[in-house]
């Protein structure tokens, strides 16, 4: 038990946040209990002990999610199971993602192109979370797709099926697409195979 109720109470979280002298953009303060600290899903994120952690992510040049975790306060024998809503960051249970069907190449596409790339995936726990990425024909860098990427030709870029509408050959010929998969239960990231878009 701590001075401000349960070790993972919002009051304690507020006190920990107040101690931070330089909060980094995108940083989240999370509490990790003994069970969470033992899971490989959390160790993969650099979280390897019970207590309060500073956590953030970024996407590197290869398109993979990188993790920055810093322990702020070690808590020995924390109160039971944590109650903070942070399962996408600190997994409560072991969970893995399985891809049953990978994205498929699109060849001989009409100009302009309207079509989809899709993936079929499942997670042992929680719901699968999708983030589609693309790589240009002349680049080695994968980029997360957003609403304004490549002139706003993409929709559904956070679902199992990426939709491309009205894409010109001059703009997207030879582009590759893949999807990063995580889960609401904090499963380790999985990246699908890449599929290419080539025009006739």
Summarize the structure.
The protein has 200 residues and is mostly beta strands.
Query: What is the terminal separation in angstroms?
Result: 67 Å
- What about the largest sheet? 6 strands, mixed
CATH superfamily of the largest domain: Immunoglobulins
CATH topology of the largest domain: Immunoglobulin-like
Compute the number of helices.
Answer: 4
Classify the secondary structure makeup into a structural class: mainly beta
Morphology call: elongated
Mean pLDDT comes to 89
CATH C-level class of the largest domain is Mainly Beta
Number of domains: 2
**Cα-atom radius of gyration:** 20 Å
The succession of helices and strands, N to C, reads HEHHEEEEEEEEEEHEEE
- The CATH architecture name of the largest domain reads Sandwich
Report strand %: 35-45%
Residue runs with pLDDT of under 50 for 5 or more positions: none
**Strands, total number:** 14
User: What percent of residues adopt helix (DSSP H or I)?
Assistant: 10-25%
Q: Which structural traits does this protein have?
A:
elongated; 12% helix; mainly beta; 2 domains; 200 residues; 4 helices; Immunoglobulin-like
